[in-house]
UniProtKB/TrEMBL annotation:
It comes from the Bacteria. Residues 90-150 form a coiled coil. It comes from Clostridium tanneri. The keyword Coiled coil applies. It is found in: Cell envelope. This is Efflux RND transporter periplasmic adaptor subunit. Gene3D superfamilies: 2.40.30.170, 2.40.420.20, 2.40.50.100. InterPro entries: UPF0194_transport, YknX-like_C.
């Protein structure tokens, strides 16, 4: 009975003490950081990363074929138009060139001595030349028809089709020349032998020119001034005509390419201002603007292995590119909307109360709950379109101890 009485005496006293302390604290006031609502500028943006790429670049292709035996440049090297980028083995073509020169010499010798030949063999020799020329012409015609079909199906390159057409024209010219010579012989034309060997000389010269062009194709030449951005072939590899060898770009003409989430890209518009930063450029901040938005989204796998729908957005750098180089990954903020001279408050002042954005206002030294309507939101500030007015004093970082009506210091 004594313990029960003691309990009923102590508990009311404790409650009174706690209530007294709360009352005294409330009278004394809760310390809180406050700020006056003012006007300022706020920017809303979409944040992501982007990669720097040359907006002026060209792929250089191999025209010849064979073993790559000399790559003269590497990624990052600066080149000029006309510089040799790589060479391909020419040994087989050099042998063909020697053979062509030998045929030219033989044709010249035959032409010079043609007047001393036995006239009894003139018709027979001319007929043999015509027959050989006809066989070559018919073979070249079949080869050209086959090449056209292969080209239309995408099995051979344009260069290979051109080679077949050159061969056809050469044999056609040879057949016409041989036939003309034969007719002259039959009619007793005294210059028939000279015409025959003149035609052979012409054919030999054409063959030499063709080999010379093939040798020239064994060197890959830069067609532009710039920097080697990509090297697509390796030393000692086998190459064919049409193989991409290098990508050369102008490092002064740079753009950024960002892949924006499809859920955010609807906010982005052509002409939006972009703020560019990141570790590769240190403390520098560079400006840009959106110049292109891809018409469709594509699936891209994130670094965490998540498939995401993203849309490519191209950003042009405004002014000096600074130290940006092709391949740099940079942080971007695309400013999708901005307002000046509007009411803004720190985002730390806003909290959710019963599903509504709210703040605490210091009203006559006491905390007063105020519901607000938010406008634009940036990284650290929020626009207030309803619920506050210029000059109101708000609690910047209200904690759970703040209650409505509490005195605020």
């Amino acid at each position: 009975m004594k313990r029960k009485r003691l309990f009923w005496i102590v508990v009311p006293i404790g409650i009174c003490l706690v209530s007294s302390l709360v009352y005294l604290k409330a009278q004394k006031g809760q310390a809180a950081e406050t700020a006056v609502v003012g006007k300022g500028e706020i920017k809303q943006y979409v944040e992501d990363t982007a990669t720097a790429k040359s907006s002026s670049k060209q792929t250089i292709y191999i025209e010849g074929s064979g073993k790559v035996n000399g790559i003269k440049v590497d990624i990052g090297d600066r080149v000029k138009k006309g510089d040799i980028l790589l060479t391909i083995d020419e040994e087989g073509l050099e042998l063909k060139l020697k053979e062509a020169n030998a045929k030219i010499d033989a044709a010249k010798a035959q032409l010079q001595g043609s007047e001393n030949l036995n006239n009894a063999n003139k018709i027979e020799i001319s007929q043999t030349v015509v027959d050989e020329a006809k066989v070559k012409y018919e073979a070249a015609a079949r080869n050209l028809n086959s090449a056209k079909a292969l080209y239309n199906s995408g099995s051979i390159s344009k260069q290979e089709l051109n080679n077949a057409e050159d061969e056809y024209k050469t044999t056609e010219l040879a057949l016409k020349s041989a036939s003309f010579t034969l007719e002259e012989v039959k009619e007793g034309t005294p210059d028939y032998v000279k015409s025959q060997y003149s035609s052979q000389l012409q054919q030999a010269v054409i063959a030499k020119d063709a080999v010379t062009r093939e040798i020239q194709k064994q060197k890959v030449i830069s067609t532009v001034d710039g920097v080697v951005l990509e090297k697509l072939v390796e030393e000692n590899s086998q190459s064919t005509a049409g193989t991409a060898a290098f990508v050369i770009g102008d490092v002064k003409a740079l753009q950024l390419e960002a892949n924006i989430l499809s859920d955010d890209v609807y906010k982005v518009k052509i002409g939006n201002e972009v703020v560019i930063s990141g570790k590769p450029i240190g403390d520098s901040v560079i400006k840009g603007k959106v110049v292109e938005i891809a018409p469709e989204a594509r699936t891209i796998t994130s670094s965490l292995g998540v498939n995401q729908k993203r849309v490519a957005v191209t950003i042009e750098i405004v002014g000096d590119i600074g130290v940006i180089k092709p391949g740099y990954d940079l942080d971007i903020k695309i400013i999708t909307e901005s307002k000046k001279e509007t009411l803004v408050i720190p985002d730390s002042a806003v909290f959710d109360y019963k599903g509504t954005a709210s703040v605490f206002v210091a009203d006559n030294g006491k905390a007063a709950l105020r519901k607000i309507k938010k406008g634009l939101e940036s990284e650290k500030t929020v626009e207030v379109v309803e619920g506050l007015k210029l000059g109101d004093r708000i609690l910047v970082k209200p904690d759970n101890n703040i209650t409505e009506g509490m005195k605020i210091k």
